[in-house]
Amino acid sequence: QVQLVESGGRLVQAGGSLRLSCAASGRTFSRDAMGWFRQAPGKERKFVAAISWSGGGTYYAESVKGRFTISGDNAKNTVYLQMNSLKPEDTAVYYCARGPPYGNYVGLTVPYYDYWGQGTQVTVSS
């Protein structure tokens, strides 16, 4: 019954910005960790950013730190990824995912997450 639906991906020029949204339904996620991952063709799915609504912590991959910002709106059951200064290497399908609550722990790898959206394509042209 839990569903995660990403939106906001599109073609954008290098240096531009996008905001991705992940709308959750089926239950509330007030105690959960939420993460963003991305996967380019022929490559493994990699961590981008994560947030713990219960603990308030945010975490970022080094490749996006200072450019991307993750945030959540618990009342709307929605998590966002603001992406600025986009680079061609940011091109990928972006997925949001849910991880189970374990206090303030937030997993930064794929196996930790048990619910995934279908992804939204982000293409950054040079």
Number of strands: 11
User: Helix and strand succession?
Assistant: EEEEEEEEEEE
Provide the β-strand percentage band. Answer: over 45%
Query: Portion of residues in helices?
Result: under 10%
For the sheet with most strands, the description reads: 7 strands, mixed
**Secondary structure category:** mainly beta
How many helices in DSSP terms?
0
Anisotropy-based shape: globular
Q: Over the alpha carbons, how many angstroms does the gyration radius reach?
A: 14 Å
Relevant terms:
126 residues, mainly beta, seven-stranded mixed β-sheet, four-stranded antiparallel β-sheet, 48% strand
Describe it.
By secondary structure, the protein is an all-beta fold. It is 0% helix and 48% strand. It contains no helices and eleven strands. The strands form two sheets. Strands 2, 4, 5, 6, 9, 10 and 11 form a seven-stranded mixed β-sheet that branches. Strands 1-3-8-7 form a four-stranded antiparallel β-sheet, with no helix packed on it. A hairpin with a 6-residue loop joins strand 4 and strand 5. The chain is globular, with a radius of gyration of 14 Å.
